[in-house]
Amino acid sequence: MSNPSSALDFLITELQTGPLLALISLILLAGGIVLQFFVILSGATYGTPENLVYFLRADTSTITGAPAESAWNFLALCGYGTNVQSCKGTQAALPFQPDQNFGTTTGVPPQFLGYTAKDTRKPLHC
Asked: I want to staple 107 with a disulfide (CB 3.0 to 4.6 A). Which of 16, 17, 63, 85 is the partner?
């Protein structure tokens, strides 16, 4: 048989820490929701702080017709030049394929060429 006082002590301890854990969980959940909104809005709006959130920002100056620096967001591909942001139209499921994003293979590193989203068997080595 279990000791009744130890079960009572456990219940009292659980009642004391339960609200604190609930508050911490609520704060973490709210923070995650706010960060998810930043990721989704990053390619849909062009204000601050949304323009500072992107998946990848890279030097694309060697690619013909591409801006000097490009950033892949959730819904858009944005070019950066002299601190000015210009984004193409938004679209869902924007691929990370520089040859298709910029419409040329000139200047694109060879590791990115020849890969399509449908061809999942060929690995992409960067």
From this structure: 63
Q: Does residue 30 sit in helix, strand or coil?
A: helix
- Tell me the C-alpha distance between 41 and 35, whole Å: 10
The predicted model scores a pTM of 0.60
Average pLDDT, the chain: 76
What's the Cα-to-Cα distance from 84 to each of 71, 75, 78, 81, rounded to whole Å?
Answer: 12, 18, 10, 5
Sign of CA dihedral 53, 58, 116, 91: positive
Residue the block writes with tokens 């820490």: 17
**81 CB contacts (<8 Å, ≥6 apart)?**
67, 68, 69
